[in-house]
Amino acid sequence: MQHALTHYAPAAVLINRGYEILSMQGPLVDYLEFPPGQPTQNLLTLARQGLRTRIRALCQKAIDGNAPVVDSSAHVRRNGQYIACSMTARPIIEPREAQGWLLVVFQDRFDERAEPPTSAPPAPESPFVRQLEDELRTARDDLRSSSEDFESANEELKASNEEVMSVNEELQSANEELESSKEELQSLNEELSTVNSQLQDKVDELDRANADLTSLLESTEIATLFLDTELRVKRFTPGITDFVNLRPGDVGRPIADFATNFQDDPLLADCRRALEKLTSVERQMRSFSAESCIRRVFPYRTAGNRIEGLIVTYTNISQLVAQRKLIDEGEAYRHVVTHLPVAAIFVSDTHLYMNEAAEALTGYRQGELATLDAWFAALFGA
């Protein structure tokens, strides 16, 4: 079957719109030339002399009319002679994926009207002249079509150029806006740098103030405890550990979790009262170690007069209590001495007190003999 198709079927090629050969059969060497070197599948490149322009015109007519077109006046150069032939271009309709393809069939003409092969160009009235005229006409049509395509492409290029110019203007406008934004950003950056420098100065100032405050709190003998509004530990001075069992890692814990060094300590009640009444609560207390102190609980106010917690201070007054006790005892003894009916004196530390009977006996008034040494010197000349 393949042998029969090869030797008896007409020469035919199946091409697409780009004149690329998809399939071929029959004696195509009579109509196509296959030159050595890089292979090509382009039908117009492979067509023998005399057929190239006619193939293009024939295929274009078949495409435009979507119907078979026959050219019976073609001549092909073969073995130095021009041979009369016919060509048929048939559009492929089915199957759907083959639409746009063309079947081009080549056949030699051996009818009575066909002129014998000749090696020279035909006479003016010969079919060869008509072929040349057709090729010229086809070439003009191709040139006209190319000119129209060129004009259309030129118009598209003009439209594209206008679009490019419009885009360029938009880009220039966007670039100007970017430049303006850049200047604004630079100005804003300078302002931010200034603000950042001021903030850094404030931070340094706060660090110094915090260091001063920390140093002051650590050096003072007043034990201080800072609480937030939820009565959680914020910070404290080292001296607070003498009164409340706190450690450095206890920051953030509720003060209710810790024991104090006082019997039945009403610390929580005092803290709640100070928060509710926004006033200070003062209480004198005595620790398990017999130390006396005054505890003050008062609200912690910010610069904006906002309450952000409490401050609890413990002031040790053990020495003051002891001295007060001595003074109270001395006043009692002096009162007794003053009302005795006999001459009597009372000495507290280096101070001397005498009653009226002693003044009458010695002849000195109260205050003239203020010390015990002055007493002995006045009475005994020592």
CATH class of the largest domain: Alpha Beta
Shape: rod-shaped
What profile does the largest beta sheet have? 5 strands, antiparallel
Following the backbone from N to C, one meets helices and strands in this order, namely HEEHHEEEHEEHEEEHEEHH
Number of strands: 12
C-alpha Rg, in Å? 63 Å
**CATH homologous group name of the largest domain:** PAS domain
* Share of helix, binned: 40-55%
Compute the separation of the termini in Å. Answer: 167 Å
Strand order of the biggest β-sheet: 2-1-5-4-3
Q: How large a portion of the residues is in β-strands, by DSSP E?
A: 15-25%
The helix-and-strand class reads alpha+beta
Low-confidence stretches: 120-125
Sequence-ordered SSE layout with sheet pairings:
Blueprint: H1 2-8, E1 11-15, E2 21-25, H2 43-46, H3 52-65, E3 69-78, E4 81-91, E5 102-108, H4 127-219, E6 223-227, E7 233-236, H5 267-277, E8 281-286, E9 292-301, E10 307-316, H6 318-338, E11 345-348, E12 351-354, H7 356-362, H8 372-380
Description of the molecule:
With 382 residues, the protein is of the alpha+beta class. It folds into four domains: 2-120, Beta-Lactamase; 129-218; 220-316, PAS domain (Beta-Lactamase), CATH 3.30.450; 329-380, no CATH class. It is 43% helix and 21% strand. It has eight helices and twelve strands. It has helices at 2-8, 43-46, 52-65, 127-219, 267-277, 318-338, 356-362, 372-380; strands spanning 11-15, 21-25, 69-78, 81-91, 102-108, 223-227, 233-236, 281-286, 292-301, 307-316, 345-348, 351-354. It has a five-stranded antiparallel sheet with strand order 2-1-5-4-3. A five-stranded antiparallel sheet has the order 7-6-10-9-8, with helices on both faces. A hairpin with a 5-residue loop joins strand 1 and strand 2. Helix 3 packs across helix 4 (127-219). It is rod-shaped. It starts with a helix and ends with a helix. Residues 120-125 have low confidence and may be disordered.
